[in-house]
Specification:
Blueprint lengths: L5 E7 L1 H14 L4 E7 L5 H10 L2 E5 L8 H16 L4 E6 L2 H11 L14 E4 L4 H7 L5 E2 L21 E5 L10 H10 L4 E5 L13 E3 L7 H5 L3 E4 L8 H8 L3 E4 L7 E2 L5 H16 L7 H10 L2 H19 L1
Parallel strand pairs: 1-2, 1-3, 3-4, 4-5, 5-6, 7-8, 7-10, 8-9, 10-11, 11-12
Helix pairs in contact: 1-11, 6-9, 8-10
């Protein structure tokens, strides 16, 4: 094709399409012109016009094959437009819960006919372990770690809290998925620890505990990270959680349901292991033996730089377009 830049249209989940578009135009404007259309919320004519102009159309976080009427209509529209802009590269970027739900529906044989039509499109996996998960549903995907911004904080600004504190993200509608019940039971067994929960108000809690504080949705998480010693993220499925990246970047200790360097691994709903790991960290803190997780910080800054990951993703998209030309 020989193009210096390509036009990429991101279609799908509103927050993440906007997020990716912003990063592409910030860090890779020499390679790509990014645009996005949120689903739901797109105006039909605007979507049609942008689909016709794009060199590559990437569906992000809006999974195919769902049985909802609106999704079926969009799936039909999506496949019909392959012939309208036949020169474009069409693809999917699997980023987390979209893959988790698709695997669930695949196993229960509840995906619609449209799912069988996606195998000829290109597929990108937002985490390393997604490649094997995609194979289960008959898809071969290339790994492109989902890019995100890391907190901009110098080493001298990494204050270490005097009191031991646990931070976690638990939205109310999906508190089971995000390990809310396990965190609450751990807090009950460990009353000497403070637990700060962001993302929800805790309306699902029947018997509130004095050592658990719910802070609701927060636009600035930096004060919560800086006031914590350890961040807990226990989920049955994840890409590479933004809370994990940010916690390590800020030299916090991390308990995670995936095995990541410089974190402590605890399986989702393994409350005994969670309690034991928290107590071990607490005892080290009390003895003055728990220092900031500087090795984890160095790893995060080296491996998850937002600009580098964005350019890696953009390079992959550029190669797809060039190969198809």
């Amino acid at each position: 094709m020989g193009k210096d830049t390509i036009k990429v249209l991101l279609v799908g989940q509103p927050y993440w399409t906007n997020h990716l578009c912003t990063l592409m135009n910030r860090y890779a404007s020499d390679m790509v012109t990014g645009d996005y259309v949120p689903i739901p919320g797109a105006k039909p004519w605007g979507l049609v016009r942008r689909l016709c102009q794009a060199d590559l159309i990437l569906r992000v976080g809006f999974r195919p094959g769902m049985r909802k009427l609106k999704t079926r209509v969009f799936d039909m529209f999506w496949h019909a437009f392959h012939s309208v802009n036949a020169k474009a590269v069409w693809g999917y970027y699997w980023i987390g819960s979209d893959l988790y739900a698709t695997i669930r529906d695949y196993r229960s044989h509840t995906l619609t006919w449209f799912f069988s039509k996606i195998h000829n499109d290109h597929h990108l996996a937002g985490a390393q372990w997604f490649r094997e998960e995609l194979k289960e549903i008959g898809i071969s995907g290339s790994v492109c770690l989902f890019p995100d911004e890391l907190p901009v904080t110098g080493s001298d600004d990494l204050c270490w809290p005097r009191d031991f504190g646990v931070l976690s993200y638990v939205p109310d509608p999906s508190y089971v998925f995000y390990g809310g019940e396990s965190l609450l039971r751990a807090a009950r067994v460990l009353p000497h620890m403070r637990f700060d929960i962001v993302g929800g108000t805790g309306k699902w809690v029947e018997n509130p505990l004095p050592n658990v504080r719910f802070h609701g949705w927060q636009t600035n998480l930096l004060p919560f990270f800086m006031d914590s010693t350890v961040m807990v993220r226990l989920v049955p499925h994840d890409a590479l959680g933004g809370m994990v990246r940010k916690a390590l970047t800020l030299a916090r200790h991390v308990i995670y349901s995936y095995s990541i360097p410089f974190t402590r691994h605890v399986d989702w709903q393994d409350e005994e292991a969670l309690i034991q790991t928290l107590q071990e960290l607490y005892e080290k803190h009390v003895k003055g033996q728990l220092a900031p997780n500087l090795e984890g910080r160095e790893y995060a800054l080296r491996e998850w730089n937002g600009a580098v990951l964005t350019r890696n993703l953009t390079n992959t998209l550029m190669k797809l377009v060039q190969t198809a030309s």
